[in-house]
Amino acid sequence: MHPHTDPASPKIAVRGLYKRFDGATVNALEHIDLDIGANEFVTFVGASGCGKSTLLRTIGGLEVQTAGELLVDGRAVTGPGIDRAMVFQHYSLYPWMTVLENIRFCRQLAAHTKDRTSSDVEAASGRADALLRLMGLQNVAGAWPNQLSGGMQQRVAIARALMGRPDIVLMDEPFGALDAQTREVMHDLIRYVHRLEKATIVFVTHDVEEALYLGQRVVLMAPRPGRIDTIYDVPFGDQRTQDLKHAPEFLRLKRDILERIRETSGMKTDLEQLQRLSGAAAETV
Ligand SMILES: Nc1ncnc2c1ncn2[C@@H]1O[C@H](COP(=O)(O)OP(=O)(O)O)[C@@H](O)[C@H]1O
Ligand SMILES: [Mg+2]
């Protein structure tokens, strides 16, 4: 049991979860069992098609499981909620709103607009200003999304996700479209946000280095059927700097995880077959 997970009351409890899409012959998720603690930062990696997004979307209430239990704070998830914010790879900012308006316009909050008092509105604009500062967006508050780089747009999307003070932030390859330098900056930023906001973060990526640098645990999933293969406790504590990515222990774990992904994805056998084929071709020459 991970030290961040209180076994008596996990923030998210996944129990014997199955998902089979209509018409599919293989389960997209099969027997997923996992507890995630409050304020934990868990990352998911695995070969493409292993069900990472499906699991995240199910926690977000955007998919319904075929069988099994999914509890948040001990209550069954029945749909999306203000307690769970999602951030995707393609930041869906409103192009006709400025940065500040995008952050203030939290869809879930908008649903309750009728009942809001002026002090709610005041609190919301204080929150928006705090998030602008937190994400380093003060100087672009009045800019339009299409005037910003991809990294800055994704900061706005994260700020907007945090606007409703979600207990849980679900992120699906949020930095997948960013260049390497921008991604490094975002890694330290999201770790800072995690410490400050005390949210539970569930983060999906195909980048093992990213998963290891960010996660307190790394959950490795395998495809066909989609399942949990291995859970790694990441032994690097919470004080991390970019140097860590070059430490021997980090590189060793990264190699182990990459090797395991290859083993579980069928890519390894593809490679071996290719090598045999090219060997055979060489012999006939
Ligand atoms: N809406 C859908 N309808 C049918 N099959 C789907 C749907 N979404 C995902 N799948 C299938 O479920 C499996 C898991 O997909 P996904 O969760 O997107 O994997 P990952 O995010 O790990 O790449 C894949 O085989 C995929 O084709
Ligand atoms: Mg995916």
Summarize it:
The protein has 285 residues and is an alpha/beta fold.
- Given as residue ranges, the uncertain stretches (5+ residues, pLDDT < 50) are none
Question: Which range best describes the helical content: under 10%, 10-25%, 25-40%, 40-55%, 55-70% or over 70%?
Answer: 25-40%
Structural class: alpha/beta
% residues in beta strands: 15-25%
Number of strands: 10
Order of helices and strands: EEEHEEEHHHHEHEHEEHH
Biggest sheet strand order reads: 6-7-8-3-9-10
**Rg (C-alpha, Å):** 21 Å
Count of helix runs:
9
Description:
There is one protein chain. With 285 residues, this protein is α/β, with parallel strands linked by helices. The protein contains nine helices and ten strands. The relative contact order is 0.17. The strands form two sheets. A six-stranded mixed beta sheet has the order 6-7-8-3-9-10, sandwiched between helices. It has a four-stranded antiparallel beta sheet with strand order 2-1-4-5, with helices on one face. The radius of gyration is 21 Å and the shape is globular. Strand 9 (217-222) and strand 10 form a beta hairpin. Helix 4 runs antiparallel to helix 5 (150-163). Bound molecules: adenosine-5'-diphosphate and magnesium ion. Magnesium ion binds next to helix 1.
Which keywords apply here?
single chain, 285 residues, alpha/beta, six-stranded mixed beta sheet, 39% helix, binds adenosine-5'-diphosphate, binds magnesium ion
Q: What layout of secondary structure does this protein have?
A:
Layout: E1 12-19, E2 29-36, E3 41-46, H1 52-59, E4 67-72, E5 75-76, E6 84-88, H2 99-104, H3 107-110, H4 118-134, H5 150-163, E7 168-172, H6 180-197, E8 200-204, H7 208-214, E9 217-222, E10 227-233, H8 248-265, H9 267-284
Parallel strand pairs: 3-8, 3-9, 6-7, 7-8
Antiparallel strand pairs: 1-2, 1-4, 4-5, 9-10
Residues 21, 24, 28, 46, 48-54, 226 line the site of adenosine-5'-diphosphate.
